[in-house]
Amino acid sequence: MKFPGIIGLLGPLLVSFLTGVPAHADQGLFLGSVAMDAPEAMVRRMAPLTQYLSVKTGYRVTFRASPNLGSAVYDLGNGFTQIAYLTPVAYIDARDKFHVVPLVAPQRENAPKFHLAIVVRKDSDIQKITDLRGKKFAFGDEKALLQRAVVVGAGIRLEELGSYAYLKHYDTIAKAVLRGDFDAGILKHAMIDEYDDGPQGLRTIYTSPPLPPYLFAVNGKLPPSVVAKLRKALLDLKPDTPEHRAILGSLDDTYDGFVRIGDHDYDLVRKLIAPFRNEMRKP
């Protein structure tokens, strides 16, 4: 006996189960992200964008928080999220492991770029990179190799630091330096003004050269028609209306839109982090 009705019903669900990608767009899409802040802060930050994408694409887009960089990579690669906002290092890892596809990157001042900054308290006696010798330093996620590459590129080896720790989120780093728990830390340069509280704020002692930016990437099994709608919706976000400015500002108040991005645009980051990736692979 044949059951074409049941097979017709279960077929798409089986595809979804095996691939981790919704068989139909109306089942909804999950948007993931690296953990730049605590989960509840990330939910607030991403809510305007998920609402915009839901309206613009016609798909129900829901944010799914990840506790760390590795989890964000795993979720996107295995289809628990279909689109994700990733750091350059997270993207490279996801590309290598799961063949994810770059979608768009944010612009600042009409260029796709960002900077990392090494910061201290304004009242710190640390004035230059070499003053960090013997000091306590705060990094973010342990897998965020670009942060270590920038510190070494600034002119100090990690073994010259007195100690260092991984605090996961940029917000946690900033607050730890402000409290005096750490002598210095590394942040996205665009965030520093958020912690400029008079004499108790943060001061930059080093800013990296322009780096390839964070980006949105998609699971490689996502249907091309869905990818095209997501890309168009993001490219259509321009700061020329109050609504769009609010959406961009919630993600990052220095963003002025998005541009298409390709895998080759991250070759510079691959070069910078290569020594650290090789070190991690040693038994």
Describe this structure as you would to a colleague:
With 283 residues, this protein is an alpha/beta fold. The chain folds into two domains: 25-111 and 212-265, 3-Layer(aba) Sandwich (D-Maltodextrin-Binding Protein, domain 2), CATH 3.40.190; 116-207, D-Maltodextrin-Binding Protein, domain 2, CATH 3.40.190. Helix content is 40%, strand content 18%. It has nine helices and eleven strands. The strands form two sheets. A six-stranded mixed sheet has the order 2-1-3-10-4-11. A five-stranded mixed sheet has the order 7-6-8-5-9, with helices on both faces. Strand 6, helix 5 (145-154) and strand 7 form a beta-alpha-beta unit. The longest helix has 19 residues, at 39-57. It is globular and about 55 Å long. The chain starts with a helix and ends with a helix. 39% of the residues are buried. Residues 1-19 have low confidence and may be disordered.
> Which sequence of SSEs, written as H and E, runs from N to C?
HEHEHEHEEEHEHEEEHHEH
Radius of gyration: 20 Å
Major sheet: size, sense and barrel closure? 6 strands, mixed
Low-confidence spans: 1-19
The figure for the number of domains is: 2
Strand order of the largest sheet: 2-1-3-10-4-11
Percent range of helical residues: 25-40%
Shape: globular
Mean pLDDT: 89
The CATH class of the largest domain, by name, is Alpha Beta
CATH architectural designation of the largest domain: 3-Layer(aba) Sandwich
